[in-house]
Design goal:
alpha+beta, two-stranded antiparallel ribbon, Ubiquitin-like (UB roll), about 180 residues, single chain, 3-stranded antiparallel β-sheet
């Protein structure tokens, strides 16, 4: 990186990494690996626009970790694993036209409800069929018989154990019936 410092127009910027400490949800989160620049001549420390974008994802993922949510790369991996474009995922799961682009760039944090739905869709293939049927408005009789939540049905006789966001209440269905719990 051989950029002239935008502050003094004479010094050469060198890239640095640093750790940031941020207030979040009544506590603090520490984010390592943040990028910026430093000018040895004027001692300014500008952060370039591409560094801001990278830092934004790191900070959003630190917030997600604190909340027990999927990270940006995990959201992308699930979406790709389901064979969906960002636009298709936004259309199918909701959240607005560009929502998945924003989740993956760290611009917006997904809700705990969407996070849970992504985990379910990734782990139980039948859920995607149900979502696609519902999305098309095709509400024909289902082969599924055990409702776990509105519009999410699980085949009879199948245990369901889904990793929910930290602190969320949940119900788990097994062959012996429903159990309640709270995600750790």
């Amino acid at each position: 990186m051989n950029m002239i410092c935008p502050m003094c127009d004479q010094g050469v910027l060198r890239e640095i990494t640093f750790t940031g400490d941020y207030a979040f949800n009544g506590g603090r989160i520490v984010v390592s690996g943040l990028k910026g620049c430093f000018c040895d001549l004027c001692k300014s420390d500008p952060i370039l626009s591409e560094q801001i974008t990278e830092n934004q994802v790191l900070i959003a993922d630190a917030k997600r970790r604190e909340m027990g949510l999927l990270q940006s790369k995990e959201i992308r991996a699930i979406r790709l694993g389901l064979g969906l474009t960002q636009h298709q995922a936004s259309d199918l799961f909701g959240g607005g036209t560009n929502s998945f682009s924003k989740y993956e760039r760290g611009e917006v944090l997904q809700s705990a409800a969407l996070d849970n739905l992504l985990r379910v869709a990734a782990s139980i293939p039948e859920v995607m069929s149900q979502l696609k049927e519902h999305h098309r408005g095709d509400r024909t009789a289902s082969l599924y018989s055990v409702p776990i939540a509105p519009n999410v049905l699980i085949p009879s006789g199948r245990d369901v154990n889904i990793g929910f966001a930290k602190g969320m209440n949940f119900k788990r269905f097994t062959n012996s019936g429903w159990t309640k719990g709270r995600a750790a």
